[in-house]
Amino acid sequence: MRSPILELQSISKEFSGVKALSDVSLTVYPGSVHALVGENGAGKSTLMKILTGAYNKTNGQIFFEGKEIEQMDPKLSKKLGIHCIYQELNVMKNMTVAENVCIGAQPVTKLGLIDWKQMNHAAKEIFSFLQLDINPKMLVRELSIAQKQMVEIARAISQQARILIMDEPTSSLSERETEVLLSLVEELKKKGVSILYISHRMDEIFRICDTVTVLRDGTHIKTLPLKEVYNVDSLVELMVNRKVTNYFHKVEVDLGKPILRVEKLSKRGVLKDISFEIRQGEILGVAGLVGAGRSEIAKALFGLLKTDSGEIFIDAQKVEIQKPSDAIRLGLGFVTENRKETGLALKQSVRANITMSNLKKYVKNMLVNQTEEKQIAEEYRKKLNIKTATLEQPISSLSGGNQQKAILSRWIIQEPRILILDEPCRGVDVGAKAEIFAQISQLAQQGVAIIMISSEIPEIVGMSDRVIVMREGSIAGLLDKHAITPDNILKLAFGGGVSA
């Protein structure tokens, strides 16, 4: 029998008296890929932060190669070769790609200065190994989210991790980049690296993992070899303690009149002649490869991207949207792709993040009526099942899926006429997905026009009334309901034609 490289025994963690983890155990062997699954808020990220020293455990024991670690801290964790790629990106935007990859281990000259030539060369070699074409001299802020994710992966590989924790590593990657990553995981496994793999993408877990541990509400439910798990449904049932048969809850709606029309929207090198319309109650899916221009359409409509030409009409009236406040005034809402950087005030409370765009509704005599504000926040906490100990805890302490539901509730309170959702379920578990899709469908029933951008083809197929497929900044095709199939979406995204 192999000896485990890592053992966590009866780990518990409390925050201000609230138990986030209770008596959780985990055993990891060298050269294995161990999946950690559960709904958002199940305790996965908390457990990983204890392992990396970001949090101190309240109770329990940690053993590394058979020796007990009394107190894990970030420095010791790194020394042991434990590295984590977090779901929320952790890159230095104003530094170069090479600096990000080599941070903390920059090569130096004999004079003690940074050896830029050697550092750029080292970064380039790692990207070559990853089959990626990224310029090491570029500033990270110029990269796409998918490229930033790969920079984090390159950093972990450069530091020769013995245990690599991957928290939703493919959530913002294209299909090609996902294939590269999964192949890389299999290569690292052959070299003896142990990988803890956190993902809501069941197909990835069944493809690359040996073992799966299920957490629910901060407790350990079961650890099984993957070969003993019958199918995706049986694993999901362990996660959510109920059958989940339909994630989408799509209700067919009688569409109203056209509410938004876009004509020949263009931005040099980004968007070219984008034209479409959307009706009241319609869900218009926007599909395409990462970098095809999907998010740029959303940003242009919301005043975050200045276009070179084109016109926007709302209720057949031409409008000018120069900044987000113009868009909000005209009845647009926008749930962004990157909740950490552009969606949340991370140091503020859950309550503040839910109500911040709507404070005018609760102002009386120039003061915010906090009772009303708290009531509406509590109402939407219950309505969207946002798991939080109290509304006053920092939103940064919530899981990604619960943060996403808080952002969505903010815009529902705003009562937009047109709601843009950019990757609304990025990093969200199947149970929370079902809740979010139910809310989206309900909004459509109320006559809200919804533009839904997603990299997940099943989401596009399951929720859309029509689909725009983007390719290289242009609309490659528009699919009506009967033609919305994975095959047609992929063919258009890659430059092919639609099946008859």
TrEMBL record:
UniProt cross-references to CDD domains, sorted A to Z: ABC_Carb_Monos_I, ABC_Carb_Monos_II
Coiled coil: none
Subcellular location: Cell inner membrane; Cell membrane
Pfam family, one: ABC_tran
GO biological process, one term: monosaccharide transmembrane transport
GO molecular function: ATP binding; ATP hydrolysis activity
Recorded superkingdom: Bacteria
Membrane topology, from the record: Peripheral membrane protein
Any one GO cellular component localisation term in the record: plasma membrane
Gene3D superfamilies recorded: P-loop containing nucleotide triphosphate hydrolases
Every ABC transporter domain range: 6-242, 250-497
Signal sequence bounds: none
InterPro entries cross-referenced by the UniProt entry: AAA+_ATPase, ABC_carbohydrate_import_ATPase, ABC_transporter-like_ATP-bd, ABC_transporter-like_CS, P-loop_NTPase
Keywords: ATP-binding, Cell membrane, Membrane, Nucleotide-binding, Repeat, Sugar transport, Translocase, Transport
Protein name: D-ribose transporter ATP-binding protein
The organism of origin for this protein: Brevibacillus reuszeri
